[in-house]
């Protein structure tokens, strides 16, 4: 899934952004093949023989990386919005690019853990938790991107305040669901070993 964030007009290379300029966020639905997938040039996945507890620990690390990337994206958007009439679009675009890479890398690894749990480890319940986590993160990313678009000058004046409130609530509820899935994953992983 690719999300466009319109943030200005005209050329995106100018320091002063104009409407119709777009920043792209790639959600986890379109990531390169997982390590060891056919056509992948990456070496063997480092976690292949790791205990299930280690895989769950790695999922938690990846979630921490995602949370940090969301904070960075939010901070960059706030900074962009506060930069006044001469919005600093190049800086915001660079952060969006870097954060997109973090999300894509985390998604590849989460999908590799899911495949490991569903296949060789024969842990369908744990694999389902990991899949749910991935889907919730995609929802969160899409909702945050939409919130940022709706908060952009030129768009925010036309926006529906109730829609913004609903989107903020959706982000909060999605984050709560992510926490619940992580808790279930940890609990069920303890039972699996």
Features:
two-stranded antiparallel sheet; about 190 residues; mainly alpha; about 10% strand; 4 helices; disordered N terminus
Task: Describe the protein.
It is a single chain. The chain is mainly alpha-helical. The chain has helices at 52-82, 89-118, 124-150, 161-192, and strands at residues 2-9, 20-26. It has a two-stranded antiparallel ribbon with strand order 1-2. Helix 2 packs antiparallel against helix 3.
The average pLDDT is 79
Order of secondary-structure elements: EEHHHH
- What's the overall geometry? elongated
Strand order, largest beta sheet: 1-2
Low-confidence stretches: 1-38
% residues in beta strands: 5-15%
**Cα-atom radius of gyration:** 19 Å
Total helices: the number is: 4
Distance between the termini: 35 Å
Report the helical percentage. Answer: 55-70%
Quick one: biggest sheet? 2 strands, antiparallel
Helix vs. strand class:
mainly alpha
- Number of beta-strand segments: 2
What is the compact description of this entry?
The protein is mainly alpha-helical.
Helices and strands in order, then pairings?
Blueprint (H helix, E strand, L loop, with lengths): L1 E8 L10 E7 L25 H31 L6 H30 L5 H27 L10 H32 L1
Antiparallel strand pairs: 1-2
Helix pairs in contact: 1-2, 1-4, 2-3, 3-4
């Amino acid at each position: 899934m690719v999300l466009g964030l319109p943030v200005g007009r005209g050329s995106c290379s100018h320091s002063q952004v104009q409407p119709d300029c777009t920043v792209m966020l790639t959600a986890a639905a379109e990531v390169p093949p997982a390590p060891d997938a056919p056509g992948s040039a990456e070496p063997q996945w480092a976690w292949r023989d790791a205990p299930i507890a280690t895989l769950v620990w790695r999922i938690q690390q990846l979630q921490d990386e995602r949370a940090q990337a969301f904070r960075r994206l939010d901070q960059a958007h706030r900074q962009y919005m506060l930069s006044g009439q001469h919005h600093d679009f190049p800086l915001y675009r660079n952060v969006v690019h870097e954060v997109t890479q973090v999300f894509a890398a985390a998604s590849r690894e989460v999908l590799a853990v899911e495949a490991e749990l569903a296949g060789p480890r024969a842990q369908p319940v744990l694999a389902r938790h990991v899949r749910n986590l991935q889907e919730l993160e995609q929802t969160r990313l899409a909702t945050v991107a939409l919130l940022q678009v709706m908060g952009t000058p030129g768009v925010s004046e036309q926006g529906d305040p109730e829609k913004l409130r609903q989107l903020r609530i959706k982000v909060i509820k999605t984050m709560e669901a992510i926490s619940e899935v992580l808790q279930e994953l940890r609990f069920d992983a303890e039972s699996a070993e």
